[in-house]
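hey so i finally got around to running the thing on that chain from the lab meeting. sorry it took forever, my laptop kept dying and i had to restart like 3 times. anyway pasting the input first so we r on the same page abt which one it is
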Amino acid sequence: MKITPDDTLIIFDEIQDCPDAITSLKYFNEKAPEYHIIVAGSLLGLAHHNGTGFPVGKVNFMTLYPLSFLEFLSANGEELLRDAMETEKIDIVETFSSRLIDYLKYYYYVGGMPEVVQSFIDNRDFKEVREIQEEIISSYKEDFSKHTDSNTAERIGMVWNSISSQLAKENKKFIYNAIRTGARAKDFEIALAWLRDSGLVYKVTKISKPNLPIKAYENIDIFKLYILDVGLLGALSNLSAKAILEENRIFTEFKGALTEQYVLQQLKITQNELHYWTSKSNVAKIDFVTQVEDYVIPIEVKAATNLKAKSLQQYRKDYNPEISVRTSLTNFLINNGLYNIPLYLIGLFEKLTINSSG
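ok and heres what got predicted. didnt touch it at all, straight out
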């Protein structure tokens, strides 16, 4: 194909497999800026490529996440419904709440990985969905070995494999001893860093106080660990497809771990910093706390329609936040600064809280 400057888009895929291609980006920028270049590849490979000088300052980054729930709706031909959600036509949206909850169930199982979503759209075959998810997980594990030594790869795999069981605990705090008896942080800190750098896991640290700036109050040694996609978490946990057909069972599976993963996944697209909070006695806990502008917003995740939120009540009593969020399967409601946001709308929580509060 003839390459015409200013008119041809050149794409280098799997660029992590070609160190010279990575280096060449500097020279395209400096010597041939008339050519438009896009590159794609594994973050794991790019972040840990030995012997390659990365062209810092010569490229612009774009982070691609799995499809959000809103994008999942669009992919399934529900563009009008998505538009109603994004324009905050709550009355219209709630008319279709049962339909949205059905799509939410599908999303919990399918997740947002593009190939998996396309398979679901084409065939509505849950077995095929699971097979593709397992292939993706296998390819990640191959990457562990491909880009590091055998000892580190083994530890990366141990951390990765432990995440689903750690999230299934009542207290979802990540415990190294649960990976291997007697394990300590220093044994797995490199493995954990690899997974974070690759974009495969998200580390949600605990804060001691929900004060500004929130980053100043985090404890980096106490955290919860989530993966990049709720569908892949279900695959790692061997979630049965039958779960999505049994009323709302899927929302409470693994002590609500899937629902927390889902909420984290929607929030992460717009919120760089997510934390969690527990009281000194550990009796009360808030699943996520984030800073938006000058607001520190607690977000309590309820998996179904039970709105009893003792932890959030305690938090509100102690800190009197201007905005608090509880997400569940019930309809949208505002009561004295407490916003009850349906799970299918949680990706729009900023628009529904900050913007609506003026």
